[in-house]
From TrEMBL:
The protein, known as: Cupin domain-containing protein
Gene3D superfamilies: Jelly Rolls
The species this protein was found in: Rhizobium bangladeshense
SUPFAM superfamilies: RmlC-like cupins (SSF51182)
Domain ChrR-like cupin intervals: 15-103
Amino acid sequence: MPETTRELLTAGGWKDLEFGPFRDQVTIHWIRPFADDQPGVALLKYEAGAGVPRHRHEGLETILVLDGVQSDEAGDYGRGSYVVNAPGTEHSVWSDTGCVVLIQWDRPVKMLEQEAV
C-alpha cells in the first residue's frame, strides 16, 4: 500500500469512502478483492453491537484497527492495534462501540456458525 494511502487511512480518510453490504451491520470497502491467488484487502466498518460469527482462518489474516474497538474471545483491540490471526485459528468478532478496521486475508475464511437473524 503506498505511503500516501496509509497516511490517508490512518488520518480518517476512510470516512469519505463508499462502503457496501458485507454482513449484518458490517459494511465493506474493497481496496483489492481476492484474485488469482492474491490476498484480499479491505476496510470493514462495524456498527455498534455488530459481529461476525465464529469462523476459521484458511490463510493468514492481519488487521489494523483504524477507529473504535474490535473484540474477540482473546481480548479488545483499540485504535492502532495490529492483530494477526494465523491459518487454522478460529474465533468470532464483534464491536460493542463500532469500529473500522483495515484487513488483509490470504484466503477467504470458512464460516462455522450461522449469522443471527
